[in-house]
Amino acid sequence: MGVDKDFFGICPYSTSQKIFSGKWNIVIMHLLSEKSYRFGELQRALGGITQTTLTKQLRFLEEYKMIHRKVYQEIPPKVEYSLTDIGKEFLPVLKEFQIFGDKYIDFLSKDK
């Protein structure tokens, strides 16, 4: 089976690639694996992300039900983001990304 956008929801590789294709999606998932964040907290934690890009990435992850957006009825408005149950299913994969990333960083440092 070839990897193609038409295989979303059919092929596990195409499906995963689509959900985590955004530049910031994996890092956002990592941050939310630690705790719930408000928008501004996420933006500060991510450093170089614009408000527009963060909004787009959060909406994307929310659309795919990886994260939950909770709006509190107060003034000023308060919104928190957290992982959904299916988003938490990604945590073992996230851990493997960390393990591989650490190994690759080590590889790069020995390659100098």
Automatic annotation (TrEMBL):
Domain of life: Bacteria
Protein name: Transcriptional regulator
Native source organism of the sequence: Inconstantimicrobium mannanitabidum
